[in-house]
Amino acid sequence: MKSTKKLRVCTTGDYRPFTYVDPKTKKRSGIDVDMAESLAKSLGARISWVPTSWKDLMPDFLAGCDIAMGGVSISTDRAQQASFTDPVLTEGKTPITLCSKVSKYDTVAEINKTGVRAITPEGGTNEAFARANYPKAKIVVWGDNNTIFDQIVKGKVDVMTTDASETVWVAKTHPKLCAVHPMKPFNYSQKAYLLPRGDDDWQEYVNTWLNIAKHDGTWTAATKPWFGDTTLR
Known about the structure:
Layout: E1 6-11, E2 14-15, E3 19-21, E4 28-29, H1 31-43, E5 46-51, H2 57-64, E6 67-68, H3 76-79, E7 83-84, E8 89-91, E9 93-98, H4 108-111, E10 117-121, H5 125-133, E11 138-142, H6 150-153, E12 159-163, H7 164-173, E13 177-179, E14 189-191, E15 194-195, H8 200-215, H9 218-227
Parallel strand pairs: 1-5, 1-6, 10-11, 10-12
Antiparallel strand pairs: 2-3, 3-4, 7-15, 8-14, 9-12, 9-13
């Protein structure tokens, strides 16, 4: 990286509020797009975006990325193959549904019922959570994160359980949808950036940059357009 001045960033581009690629303009936006630009600027480097998907994130990352960003959850499976930065966000899984049905789907037991249609994107921690916790419900796997919430609005499915951060943003942009207790999620999880294992110098640098960004207004500026005045830890 020092010689090429190129920061290779793996990202799915389909997980707002963290990363998004507009299908028409190809313009990127999101919290971690802004954060990647900040990291690259600190290095005097340019970004080389490496597109990936959730099911291919790890092999694509191992094949040639300096960092993976975009709402990546810390997990032991991923930690077996890569390192993580310090956490950028602490949250958990929580439901999102039609505002008229919030009280109907506010516990795991209420969602885990025959006849409930629980939608999930393919291949990530949301699918793993749904399959582990909703064996009685009908699990609907959806291949496009950018249209997944429209299925709830259209009445084709009932509920989705995802990260609290995503539910806050979605509720902010979809008037008919409401986040269900995002400040009291079903479980505990953290998001961080994925780094190659064994490169202690690089990990220390990124953590130093991240700590500064968390305290100098960079992180706040990146998150405010998406979360508004809602404060997630």
